Amino acid sequence: MPKFRCQCGNVLNLSEIWPECERRLVPITRVGGLADLLDSNVPVTGEQFYESIDEVSMVVYRCSNCGRL
């Protein structure tokens, strides 16, 4: 069970499939490009959407106690 202890002492559980504390930092240019693609009515699958984000995103964890990244 992977866990991470924040500097405030709170323990973040990372073993869930979608950990509540996990966040993705995505460049705003990629968000804008995805919005443009969706506005163009070009069909986009969920897999394509996630692949587009995963290519450029960075995983960070946010403490639910203090909000620290």
For the secondary structure, the number of strands is 4
Largest sheet composition: 2 strands, antiparallel
Major sheet: arrangement of strands? 1-2
Contiguous uncertain segments of 5+ residues? none
Straight-line distance between termini? 20 Å
Give the topology string: H per helix, E per strand: EEEHHE
Q: Give the oligomer, counting copies of the same chain as homo and different chains as hetero.
A: single chain
The radius of gyration is 15 Å
Shape designation: elongated
* SS summary, helix count: 2
Question: Can I get a quick summary?
Answer:
Helix content is 30%, strand content 20%. It has 2 helices and 4 strands.
Write the layout of secondary structure elements.
Layout: E1 3-5, E2 11-13, E3 22-25, H1 28-39, H2 46-54, E4 58-61
Describe this structure in words.
- The protein is an alpha+beta fold.
- The chain is 30% helix and 20% strand.
- The protein contains 2 helices and 4 strands.
- The chain has helices at residues 28-39, 46-54; strands at 3-5, 11-13, 22-25, 58-61.
- It has a two-stranded antiparallel sheet.
- The protein is elongated.
- The two termini are 20 Å apart.
Characteristic key phrases:
69 residues; 4 strands; two-stranded antiparallel ribbon; alpha+beta
